[in-house]
Design goal:
CATH superfamily: P-loop containing nucleotide triphosphate hydrolases
Number of domains: 1
Number of strands: 5
Helix content: 40-55%
CATH architecture: 3-Layer(aba) Sandwich
Largest sheet: 5 strands, parallel
Order of helices and strands: HEHEHHEHHEHHHEH
CATH topology: Rossmann fold
Number of helices: 10
Distance between the termini: 52 Å
Strand order of the largest sheet: 2-3-1-4-5
Length: 248
Amino acid sequence: MALLTNLPTRAPKDLEKRDVKEKTEALLLRLDECQNRLYADGKRSVLVILQGMDASGKDGVIRKVFGRLNPAGLTLSAFKTPTAEEAAHDFLWRVHHQAPAKGMIGIFNRSHYEDVLITRVHGWCDDATARLRFQAINNFEELLAVHNGTVIFKFYLHISPEEQKERLQERIDDPAKRWKYNKGDLAEAEKWEAYRAAYEDVFSQCGNPPWTIVPADQNWYKEYLITKTLVEGLEALDLQYPPAPPDA
């Protein structure tokens, strides 16, 4: 995989926003049908992992893409600073409990990868520990995929430092977004290069299933790519509605 600095954060210039948004609407209808079949079949589950720098738009993806689906078939987990109880266990303890049941789509807003990202950037996790955690993460995802039929989609929302700075400023200037403001956000943004290196290590060490690097400077393009990836992946499963019970 190419270095993040070599990958685009914006849509190709020949794309028209209106055309892409129309395609997204059509894809969302197909995604709704995929969810219905997944839920009715009840034999597989889906885990969507959303990672990215602050202000890369994870919340917006959840609202615009998954907000159109049946909430009865969705679970959402956000992983922030571990509680005292969580920190007293292994780092995957709190994560495994949130894995989606069969028939469900589970969304991780941040995930188990935080334990090899922010922890490394801040020096709370050394390289030797990180290598052990990479192995544990790979084993965990294999357990979900192979032994429980979970289809895993991993998205990194690739935002440019310039766009991130603008969005963080909006959290200060816009009253509707001020509740998102954290005084530590700007300090974390200054560590962009360290986070880039940590993410690139994640991509190389934990690439099965593979990561989808999503240009995230433009929300309309980001939502399109994520929806398209999900639809293509789920339709490839050829999920079917089960037959009616004999006594129906």
